[in-house]
Write a structure and sequence with these properties.
single chain; about 130 residues
């Protein structure tokens, strides 16, 4: 149970370390559902590098000292599902094609189908 979370699930506050841990937990679920090819993709270092890039892209910021010190805040531009989708497609431009040596639930007909399927599966894990 995260110590910096409130009871309203839509306004959960996490530190960067808690966010990395939560991303690893969700990533493990996705790996064992054969949605992620390489377990190394969800290593602590990989996720820290990704979140460092997201900070550089101004997706989120970290709270300063005091009550919000170290907490992650999504910047206003990324608080809607539509803007998060834009970010997902931006990140997908850098993703290599699936290696296909792991079984997937279906053979995606296009990159858009693969992204849509990945979003649905990730949402089900976050629940």
């Amino acid at each position: 149970n995260d110590t910096n979370t409130n009871t309203n699930n839509t306004n959960t506050f996490l530190t960067l370390a808690q966010l990395v841990h939560r991303a690893q937990t969700i990533g493990e679920q996705l790996f064992f559902q054969c949605q992620i090819d390489l377990f190394e993709a969800i290593s602590k270092e990989q996720l820290q590098n990704a979140f460092k890039l997201y900070r550089h892209w101004s997706v989120f910021s970290l709270g300063k000292q005091g009550a919000t010190g170290g907490l992650v805040f999504m910047n206003e531009n990324y608080q809607s599902e539509e803007q998060v989708l834009v970010l997902v497609h931006r990140v997908a431009q850098y993703k290599k094609a699936a290696r296909s040596y792991r079984s997937r639930r279906f053979k995606a007909q296009s990159r858009s189908d693969e992204i849509s399927d990945s979003i649905k599966v990730a949402k089900s894990c976050v629940g």
